[in-house]
Amino acid sequence: xxxxxxxxxxxxxxxxxxxxxxxxxxxxxxxxxxxxxxxxxxxxxxxxxxxxxxxxxxxxxxxxxxxxxxxxxxxxxxxxxxxxxxxxxxxxxxxxxxxxxxxxxxxxxxxxxxxxxxxxxxxxxxxxxxxxxxxxxxxxx
Length: 141
Ligand SMILES: Nc1ncnc2c1ncn2[C@@H]1O[C@H](COP(=O)(O)OP(=O)(O)OP(=O)(O)O)[C@@H](O)[C@H]1O
Fold this sequence. Notes:
By secondary structure, this protein is mostly helical. Helices cover 89% and strands 0% of the residues. It starts with a helix and ends with a helix.
């Protein structure tokens, strides 16, 4: 009996906390905030815009050349996600340290480094996946 009551109480708690977290309205609101973040990055960051269009080009080429889509999509998503994190970190650093500070530099440089590493990896993935079929298409083989 006590066990059943305990389980019911736990279920109530779970329903109350998970219920709101899983509500479609709440999820839609959160997605709206996330999309606002993406739009802000697109408007304010030239690098993000370049990466978006480079990714779109790579995905189009992969589809047209019938190259594996998943690794190209994953590499593009990684670069874009890290650029968004870099944008967020830049904003937080500017908020916390408007003056020049060595730690602010470390934070911004490391975040930019993360994007650079991901972009280099994406370039390798792009060359490996799209290079051979593109070469075959160009050379008519
Ligand atoms: N508060 C700061 N203290 C110390 N160094 C800073 C600070 N803000 C920026 N820097 C240095 O200047 C570099 C450029 O910073 P900035 O905020 O202009 O970013 P960015 O690389 O121009 O990025 P974006 O063009 O995407 O905004 C940083 O990587 C860092 O080395």
